[in-house]
Design goal:
Elements: H1 8-20, E1 25-26, H2 27-34, H3 38-54, E2 61-66, E3 71-76, H4 84-97, H5 102-131, H6 143-156, E4 158-166, E5 169-175, E6 179-183, E7 186-190, E8 207-209, E9 213-221, H7 233-239, E10 248-255, H8 259-265, E11 270-271, E12 292-299, H9 302-310, E13 315-319, H10 321-337
Antiparallel strand pairs: 1-3, 2-3, 4-5, 4-9, 6-7, 7-8, 10-12, 10-13, 11-12
Helix pairs in contact: 1-3, 2-3, 4-5
Amino acid sequence: MATGGLRGSKRTVMIMLRLFTGAALTKTALASEFQCSESSVQRDIREIRAMIAEAGLAEQFQISTAAGRGTYQLKQRSAVALTPTQRLAVGQILLASRGLSNTEMAPILQALLGQVEAAALKPLLQSDWQQYRGVPDEAAESVLATLAVVVQAIREHARLRFTYTFNGQAVVLERVPTAVFFADLYFFMTSGCESAYDDLDVTRLHKFALTSMTAVRRVGRAAAPSQAQRLETGRLRQHTALPFLGNPVTLVIDYFSDPQYVRDRFPQAKQLATPVPEANWPTWPGWTQQRVRFAIEVNDGYGIRMWLLQQAHMLKVIEPTALRDYVITRMQWTLASYGAQ
């Protein structure tokens, strides 16, 4: 439909409608299309800004202007601005994560706190900020840069080739990423579901710490992964204390300390009937006198195994037998290393 010579409010409305579709409009192209001067286009943009303000939408929408290019685009602002307390909470979480290098973390914190809040909030983060030691700048490629490549590959079902260093061994691998997530100090890329291989053979791995990935590049496209091949990160977090993949099992334990810790760590844990103390139940320190039995849906990966060993003096594994035997064997190794029988 020709638009030559279109004037006044109708032209302004047409420009506004295009902006609300997300289009990037140039002043020169609009002036040529509507056969008007560039100053008329600028006047239209001013009117649109005024209409947005009069409609009470200025907090949600802003017409941005690319510097020196005469390009206009409607940007949606955050619907809800963070309060100073929320900014402080997010800042504490970011600093505790240690997931980025100091160079990458600093501008994120500056943007989070903002110029107005920085003077009031920064002192409350001062110690963590000064002592922050994230991923060494010289130890790995930019985490954010690698993350951007992986995210784009997920969106486009692209295959990646990269060098992965694991247990001192550097291997060139190709994978089609299916998810990214952050846990226990690291960003991870996965190329499989929660039960994919995640053990010592680096050539079979499906979970990769971004800090150990170098020379990451696209090498082609792949079919979109099926639902069964995708990692459900929310489910993974519920099923392991540390970020390791594994097969689903029901873990039954007797816990001898504060049961709230188990509920906090595994929100889906179900408390079972309190077991009757065994005849050979030893005399525990006073703080372990309570005994609560839990059934917890977890995976059998290395993450849950490490958690069981961390808590070994405060729990007893009832089932499955494989995890029970794992804990017993490792405890025997520990005793042997101290010369105990």
